[in-house]
Write a structure and sequence with these properties.
Blueprint lengths: L2 H16 L20 E7 L2 H12 L6 H7 L8 H4 L1 H11 L3 E6 L9 H21 L4 E3 L1 E2 L5 H13 L6 E3 L14 H10 L3 E3 L9 H5 L9 H15 L2 H4 L5 E3 L1 H4 L1 H15 L11 H8 E4 L6 H11 L4 E2 L9 H9 L5 H15 L6
Parallel strand pairs: 1-2, 2-3, 4-5, 5-6, 6-7, 7-8, 8-9
């Protein structure tokens, strides 16, 4: 059984075992109101057609995506029922006390395919996500899948998804064939996101091919460390590369308490200034200022009290959002862990729902 299969199997088993634990329960941490609304903001979603396409791609060799091979070996991509079945998902939400999910296509999304196939799959994914959101509007909002392989088409699909389908932003599963959003070829996507005033969620995937062997040698390419290393690199490339000089109102979301960037934020600023003789070089705002003003972080897969509270201290309570990383993290225990974080009522309301309502334009309950 591959690492990814084991991960999903164990998550499913844990969910089944823990399901009765939190039925109907509400948060009881100090300062958390008994009926705090919970919006989980990085929740995986897929469709059978995408998984079929991934299987065909892997069977053909996947020579330019060694990270996928490292993750799943020679097995097929798992058809995790909770990625595909909204009614199973809603039952889990009832048990865990999650009121609404922000759903997004899980890694690698459509980014492993050639541009034409990727663009067509993105449209299909978005149409299917729209169906979920229309049928259960009090349960789901969605972020659009886009195909950076064709930046102009991706920008057009983002506009369609937002203006026609009601999507609340886009998800990009970090690198696309080893390339990153600081490269100007991708800037039509960023221009569209800024014009629409919608966030881009940079979701993890395994490191780019050039870096992968250093991680895979010790099985570090996945969620244990490689995901955070890859995604934080992506964000810092965007900051250092001047993306936010060109797009000063661009909104970016990172999961996993900011992929460790908040912990290093002071050092990042200090060393950046050292590289530029105490100044800002080509930037007009320091890296830390950009991160505080253009980024939001979620607690996906990382509802550990010290990490969440530290992120709130560094970034402000208005920049940190609750998430589970469903179905790859067990939802009941994630909610229990988050509900136990000591917070004042104002911070708890912001964390569990207020920040998500503002960022993703979700109507208050």
């Amino acid at each position: 059984m591959s690492k990814l299969h084991r991960r999903t199997f164990l998550a499913a088993a844990a969910a089944a075992a823990a399901a009765p634990v939190l039925a109907g329960a509400q948060g009881t941490a100090p300062g958390v109101p008994a009926r705090t609304r919970r919006i989980a903001c990085e929740e995986g979603f897929s469709i059978p057609e995408l998984i079929d396409a991934v299987d065909r791609y892997m069977e053909a060799g996947a020579e330019d995506e060694p990270g996928m091979r490292a993750l799943i070996g020679n097995d097929k991509y798992p058809r995790f029922p909770r990625l595909l079945d909204p009614e199973l998902r809603i039952a889990d939400m009832e048990r865990s006390g999650v009121d609404m999910q922000v759903i997004m296509v899980n890694s690698p999304g459509v980014q492993i395919f050639e541009a034409v196939e990727a663009t067509a799959l993105a449209r299909l994914i978005n149409d299917r996500a729209r169906d979920w959101c229309q049928r259960w509007p009090d349960r789901f909002v969605a972020l659009a899948a886009i195909a950076p392989q064709d930046p102009q088409a991706a920008a057009q699909e983002l506009e369609r998804a937002v203006t026609t389908l009601g999507m609340r932003g886009a998800v990009i599963n970090s690198h696309t064939k080893g390339e990153y959003l600081d490269q100007q070829k991708f800037w039509p996507i960023l221009e569209a996101a800024q014009a629409l005033d919608m966030p881009i969620y940079i979701h993890p995937r395994e490191p780019a091919p050039a870096a992968l062997p250093l991680y895979a040698a010790q099985r570090l390419e996945g969620a244990m460390w490689g995901y955070a290393a890859e995604t934080s690199l992506h964000a810092l490339r965007m900051i250092a590369g001047g993306v936010f000089e060109q797009f000063p109102r661009l909104k970016i979301v990172l999961g996993h308490d900011g992929e460790a960037i908040p912990f290093y934020l002071d050092r990042i600023d200090n060393r950046y200034r050292s590289l530029h003789q105490g100044g800002l070089g080509p930037l007009t705002r320091s890296p830390a200022t950009v991160f505080r003003e253009n980024f939001w972080v979620t607690s996906s897969g990382a509802n550990w009290s010290p990490a969440v509270r530290f992120s709130q201290e560094v970034l402000g309570v208005d920049r940190v959002l609750f998430a589970v990383d469903y179905p790859f993290e067990e939802e009941v225990s994630s909610v229990q862990q988050a509900a136990a974080i000591p917070m004042e009522q104002v911070a708890a309301e912001a964390f569990f729902h207020g920040n998500a309502e503002r960022l993703f334009r979700i109507a208050p309950a």
